[in-house]
Known about the structure:
Blueprint (H helix, E strand, L loop, with lengths): L9 H23 L6 E2 L5 E2 L1 H22 L5 H14 L4
Antiparallel strand pairs: 1-2
Helix pairs in contact: 2-3
Amino acid sequence: MGLSWMAWTGPTAAFFIFVALCFAAMSVWEYVAPGGGPRHGVLGLDTTRGDRLFISLLGSAFIFLAWLGLVGTPLWAPLAIAIVYAGCVFRWV
């Protein structure tokens, strides 16, 4: 059984590589600076680095899906929105 059932395009592969790199970078960050004390977020939740990564990836997926459903392509605008969203989740913006 191969992977012919899945639509492996360049963007699809880039997405999975990006997610894998995010997890690898988060693992290295946690190894170098363990702990990363919880922060109290806007929703009233105390979140750690991993929680914030998960929330930003999940929220970005919903941003892209909503954009595709409502507007269609190209996807540069939702990419910018997702980057700003992730920056807000990690409080970089």
